[in-house]
């Protein structure tokens, strides 16, 4: 799929332009003994309104395992998305990415490094303040502070890595929660969707009884609160 620079994109966002769009795919959630390993369906939307920032909306669904096919990470993101059936929303998150300056390129890649500040919020009661960088088709951010409501899960730290590999968006997150050290929580492989309304790009499209995305049924799944709704 050919990628073109989005219209009206602020010049400050040119280093982040490859993120813009709708991405769909699959991934894995796991967190020690708290969350048993499970496959999930994922959608990430990076959008802009002409301002010097990107808005990221992330949604993760559990799977209907009776209908979904088994996948491995060699399957392209979009193809994988069409072979699994989402069941219930596990977590959602809204974040804003803002470039805050550049550093000199390193001698090996000669690609400038753009510094990032990110803020995120989720319905499980966590707010994250992140810092990091983006260089070419790779970004890495980590929380400098995590605020949470009185009843939310005890989440203290998160890190995230995103990269463009073979045209797919690959990402992974570690987190520290429930008194445990920083460890793996989630990962995914997603493909860019040219037309989000195209029936062929809907989750489960290659399954014989594909219904598309289920309607949100109120709050995220209970497990999302237990995990701090981190993505």
TrEMBL record:
A motif (GXWXGXG) lies at residues 21-27. Pfam families: THAP4_heme-bd. CDD domains: lipocalin_heme-bd-THAP4-like. Residues 209-231 have a biased composition (Low complexity). It comes from the Bacteria. Residues 189-231 are annotated as: Disordered. Residues 12-192 form the THAP4-like heme-binding domain. Belongs to the nitrobindin family. This is Ferric nitrobindin-like protein.
């Amino acid at each position: 799929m050919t990628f073109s620079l989005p219209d009206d994109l602020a010049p400050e966002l040119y280093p982040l332009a490859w993120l813009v769009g709708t991405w769909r795919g699959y991934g894995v959630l796991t967190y020690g003994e708290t969350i048993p390993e499970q496959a999930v369906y994922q959608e990430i939307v990076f959008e802009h309104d002409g301002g010097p920032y990107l808005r990221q909306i992330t949604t993760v669904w559990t799977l209907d395992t009776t209908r979904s096919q088994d996948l491995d990470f060699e399957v392209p993101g979009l193809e994988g998305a069409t072979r699994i059936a989402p069941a219930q929303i596990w977590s959602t998150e809204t974040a804003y990415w803002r470039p805050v300056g550049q550093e000199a390129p390193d001698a090996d890649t000669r690609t400038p490094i753009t510094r990032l500040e990110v803020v995120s919020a989720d319905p499980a009661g966590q707010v994250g303040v992140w810092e990091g960088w983006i260089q070419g088709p790779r970004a890495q951010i980590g929380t400098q502070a995590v605020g949470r409501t009185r009843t939310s899960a005890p989440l203290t730290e998160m890190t995230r890595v995103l990269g463009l590999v073979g045209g797919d968006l690959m990402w992974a997150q570690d987190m520290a929660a429930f008194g445990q050290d920083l460890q793996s929580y989630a990962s995914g492989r997603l493909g860019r969707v040219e037309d989000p309304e195209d029936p062929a790009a809907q989750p489960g499209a290659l399954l014989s009884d594909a219904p598309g995305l289920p309607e949100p049924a109120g709050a995220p799944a209970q497990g999302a609160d237990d995990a701090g709704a981190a993505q």
